[in-house]
Predict the 3D structure of the following.
Amino acid sequence: MNMLHQQDPAKKKRLKRPYFVVLLLLLFGIGFFVGKSYSAEELLSASSESSTMPETVEQPDEPSDVPEIVEEPKESTPPPESSVDAESEGTEPIAEEQPAKKVVYLTFDDGPSNWTEQFLDVLQQHGVKATFFMQGGNLKKQHLQESVNRAVQEGHYIGGHSMTHNYRKLYTEHQFVPEMIETLNLIQEITGETSHLVRAPYGSAPGLKEEQMRTQLANAHIKIWDWTIDSKDWELASNPSQIVRNIQNGTTSDREVILMHEKKQTLEVLPRVIQYLKEQGYEFMVYEDTNHFMLNFQNDARL
Ligand SMILES: [Zn+2]
């Protein structure tokens, strides 16, 4: 209807065409501006999204940066620990591992005996290897030799403990080295194993205070081991629990060598001794000729 009225005046048509053009231009312009404004909003929203997106996009970066910053503190905080880590890491390849690792050597003197088999049973049950110092007089008893061979087969070490165990003969009469050589030869005859370690009856002090006997030992390539803990088991037949307490009280360092004997009371408490040492984090070691360390009361580095 309006179109019909408007179509009547041609001038108006001519006049209105420019208006239409202007209106169209205005509409385009508005549309453009609106579009722009939308696009601006979109841009804003997009920027806000992109600010979130970039955040989410950057967040992965930032989180990755943050974790790096978080990890870096971990790396920077470890340094206080890293001094410990560095030590523990440094100790692994080097020999410093020994102080970090707690090791214990169980040693049993005066065998072989009628108890040897049962000692081996207990050690086997607990997966523990031990070091035995045996007497020549007992090694000669044929019915005990099977136990000596079993000990070797099960990974235990058999060292020498003299032929006579007699203080006067060994030290006063200077028979220590000849007796030890005879004992070690006997062990080799029975087991086929060549041992170089002995334990001096009653300890190397004061018996081996004379340097001459120690030189004789060194020349014979014989090493001697005393101990770090005396369980005093031999005198505790009526009070076996005291053996455990003696060992508990004596356990102070990362490497212990415990003196025990093939006695009934010792056999009785051996599982408790092993359990205690395991609880304390000790690893059970057996003596090896190739891994010798000095342990004698004379502090003779040759032995
Ligand atoms: Zn002895």
